[in-house]
């Protein structure tokens, strides 16, 4: 099998679907993730020196058990440990461009202040749409973001 990819663009956003043939090291690493019940967070970041930086989520005992099983050819470097807190940039990037615009406007205008400073209609007027449209977007935004942060 050869590596394959497909690119698509819509509404100014670009997406890539990549299918690659996994080498022994990658298969071993993914098997280790499954065996020790780790979760990895996106994005995966390639370093300047050809490495791969991955945020792995799991308990300390699982990491200690997993270290001897790291596949040959893979070098681990622990950068930090601590409580996992999702990156808000990653969460924000899951929203469409229009959802990001509506959320920014809602925050800036005081929609989330206590007491609430504006209505859906006020936000819609500022953005050139109806209050119902704003309400629909804010519900979808909430569904997208809240499912990511609730344990």
In short:
The chain is of the alpha+beta class and 151 residues long. The chain has helices at residues 24-35, 60-66, 88-93, 97-109, 120-127, 131-149; strands spanning 4-10, 13-19, 39-46, 52-57. It has a two-stranded antiparallel sheet with strand order 1-2. A two-stranded antiparallel ribbon has the order 3-4.
Description:
- The chain is an alpha+beta fold.
- The protein has six helices and four strands; from the N terminus they run ββαββααααα.
- It has helices at residues 24-35, 60-66, 88-93, 97-109, 120-127, 131-149, and strands at residues 4-10, 13-19, 39-46, 52-57.
- The strands form two sheets. The chain has a two-stranded antiparallel sheet.
- α4 packs across α6 and α5 (120-127) crosses α6.
- The protein is elongated, with a radius of gyration of 21 Å.
- The two termini are 39 Å apart.
- The mean pLDDT is 82.
């Amino acid at each position: 099998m050869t590596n394959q990819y497909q690119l698509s663009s819509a509404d100014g956003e670009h997406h890539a679907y990549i299918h690659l043939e996994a080498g022994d090291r990658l298969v071993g690493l993914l098997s280790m993730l499954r065996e020790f019940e780790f979760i990895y967070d996106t994005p995966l970041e390639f370093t300047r020196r050809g490495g791969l930086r991955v945020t792995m989520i799991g308990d300390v005992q699982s990491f200690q058990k997993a270290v001897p099983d790291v596949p040959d050819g893979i070098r681990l470097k622990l950068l930090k440990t601590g409580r996992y807190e999702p990156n808000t940039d990653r969460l924000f990037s899951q929203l469409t461009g229009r959802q990001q615009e509506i959320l920014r406007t809602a925050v800036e205008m005081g929609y989330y202040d206590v007491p609430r400073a504006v209505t859906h209609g006020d936000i819609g007027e500022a953005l050139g749409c109806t209050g119902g449209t704003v309400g629909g977007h804010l519900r979808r935004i909430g569904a997208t973001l809240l499912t990511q942060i609730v344990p």
